[in-house]
Design a protein that fits this description.
Blueprint lengths: L2 H14 L4 E4 L2 H8 L6 E6 L2 E7 L3 H7 L4 E5 L4 H12 L4 E4 L5 H9 L10 E4 L2 H6 L4 H22 L8 H14 L4 E2 L4 E4 L19 E7 L1 E3 L2 E2 L2 E7 L4 H19 L7 H14 L11 E3 L6 E5 L12 E4 L2 E4 L3 E4 L2 E6 L2 E4 L11
Parallel strand pairs: 1-5, 3-4, 5-6
Antiparallel strand pairs: 1-2, 2-3, 7-10, 8-9, 9-12, 10-11, 13-14, 15-18, 16-17, 18-19
Helix pairs in contact: 7-8, 9-10
Length: about 350
C-alpha cells in the first residue's frame, strides 16, 4: 500500500478546499491513510507531516502498522486533546475535518481544547475528503477485494450442497460463517442475511429461528473480510417446485440486474445504472416492489460511495467497486434479490462475483 501517495493526495484535496491541515478520526480513513487498525486513533496531516495519536494499548501495533507516520502514544488523557495541542503548536490555521462522521458533540469538544481566540476559526467542516479518495481503488486494494469476493463465491457454491428444508435460517448463517472462518476470513462484512419463505420479502431479513420451507425462496446476502477489505454478494434460490409466477419474478429481477451491470463503465452516472435496473422492473410492473437503491461502493467499509440511486449524477471512474443489487419484495408472499460486485475498468467493467445466478431449484 502506498500510504505516502495517499497522504499526499489527501493533503492536496484539503488544500483545494481551503484548509492547511486535516484531522482524521474515522477508523477506515485512518487505516486508508497510514495502515493503523487500532480502535482509538486520531491522525493529523499538515505541512508534509503526519502524526498518529493513540493510546498505550497500541504501542507495538502502531509501530508495526503505521510505517512512515510519526506515532505519539498518549497517556492519562484522550487522544483528541493531544491531537488538538499538536495542531495549535504546529501553527495550523484551518484544520479540516470530515463533517459526515464528526458529531456536534465531538466538534464542541475539539473547540474546547484550543485557545478561545481561534476556537471558531480553526476547525473547518469538509465534505468527506478521504472517503472520496477511497472510492477509487488502487491495484493493491482491488487485489484484496477480488480475493474476498472469490472466497464469497466459494462459500455460496458450498452452501448449495447444504441447503435443505427444515434447517433454521440461523443454522444456515452460522454454517456459512464457520466455513468463512475456515476459509481465512477475519470477519464477516455484516450480519449474514438468510431470509426464507415469506420472510424473503424482508430486504434485510437477518437470520432467525424460522425453518427453511419445503417450497419457497431462500435469499443469502453475505460478505467476508480479508485483510480489511470486504465483499458483498446476494443469491436467491428456490426450494422445491416453483410456481410460474415465482419464476417470472425471478427472471425479471435477473434481467434487471444484468441490464444494470451491462452499462457499468467510466463516465456512466450512478443514476443511469439505477435506472437501467428500475426500467426493466417498471416494464414488468414490479418496480413498486423495488424499495431501495440499486447499489453502493464497497472497500474498507461495506457501504461506501458512490451510491447507485435514482437521479445520482456522480460519474463512475476506473477503480471504483460497486454492487448491483435490484430486488423485489412482496409482503406476505415472497421476495428475492440478486447482487454482484462490479469493478469499473478503463474499458467497461469486470464482475468480481461470477457465481451462477441463473435460476436454481433445489
Amino acid at each position: 500500500m502506498n500510504f505516502r501517495a495517499r497522504k499526499a493526495a489527501a493533503t492536496r484535496a484539503v488544500r483545494a478546499l481551503g484548509a492547511d491541515g486535516l484531522l482524521v478520526t474515522h477508523p477506515a480513513d485512518v487505516r486508508y491513510l497510514c495502515g493503523f487498525t487500532g480502535s482509538n486513533a486520531a491522525l493529523v496531516l499538515a505541512g508534509g507531516k503526519s502524526v498518529l495519536f493513540t493510546d498505550g494499548r497500541y504501542t507495538l501495533q502502531a509501530k508495526n502498522e503505521a510505517l512512515g507516520t510519526r506515532v505519539t502514544i498518549v497517556s492519562n488523557r484522550p487522544v483528541l486533546p493531544a491531537a488538538c495541542e499538536w495542531i495549535v503548536q504546529t501553527g495550523i490555521k484551518r484544520c479540516g475535518f470530515d463533517a459526515a462522521v464528526t458529531t456536534v458533540a465531538t466538534l464542541e469538544s475539539l473547540r474546547k481544547e484550543v485557545p478561545a481566540r481561534i476556537r471558531r476559526s480553526l476547525f473547518m467542516a469538509l465534505p468527506s475528503p478521504v472517503a472520496r479518495l477511497r472510492q477509487v481503488k488502487d491495484s493493491d486494494e482491488i487485489s484484496k477485494i477480488r480475493a474476498a469476493a472469490n472466497l464469497g463465491c466459494e462459500l455460496f457454491d458450498d452452501m448449495l450442497e447444504y441447503l435443505r428444508p427444515g434447517l433454521t435460517e440461523i443454522d444456515v448463517a452460522s454454517t456459512l460463517e464457520y466455513r468463512a472462518r475456515q476459509g481465512g476470513a477475519e470477519a464477516m462484512s455484516f450480519d449474514t442475511i438468510v431470509a426464507s419463505g415469506e420472510r424473503s420479502a424482508l430486504p434485510h431479513g437477518h437470520a432467525s429461528m424460522a425453518k427453511l420451507p419445503r417450497r419457497g425462496f431462500v435469499t443469502l446476502d453475505f460478505g467476508v473480510v480479508l485483510d480489511g477489505y470486504m465483499s458483498d454478494m446476494t443469491r436467491t434460490v428456490h426450494l422445491g417446485k416453483a410456481q410460474a409466477s415465482e419464476r417470472d419474478v425471478y427472471d425479471a429481477v435477473l434481467e434487471a440486474q444484468e441490464a444494470a451491470v451491462a452499462i457499468v463503465a467510466p463516465g456512466v452516472t450512478a443514476g443511469e445504472v439505477d435506472e437501467a435496473a428500475r426500467s426493466v422492473l417498471r416494464r414488468t410492473g414490479l418496480d413498486r416492489w423495488f424499495t431501495h437503491s440499486t447499489g453502493h461502493g464497497v472497500g474498507l467499509e461495506i457501504h461506501e460511495g458512490p451510491r447507485l440511486g435514482a437521479k445520482q449524477t456522480q460519474q463512475l471512474e476506473p477503480g471504483m467497486v460497486v454492487t448491483v443489487e435490484p430486488g423485489v419484495y412482496m409482503p406476505g408472499q415472497f421476495g428475492l434479490r440478486i447482487e454482484d460486485m462490479v469493478l469499473v475498468t478503463s474499458g467497461g467493467h469486470e464482475i468480481l462475483t461470477p457465481s451462477v445466478k441463473a435460476w436454481i431449484e433445489l
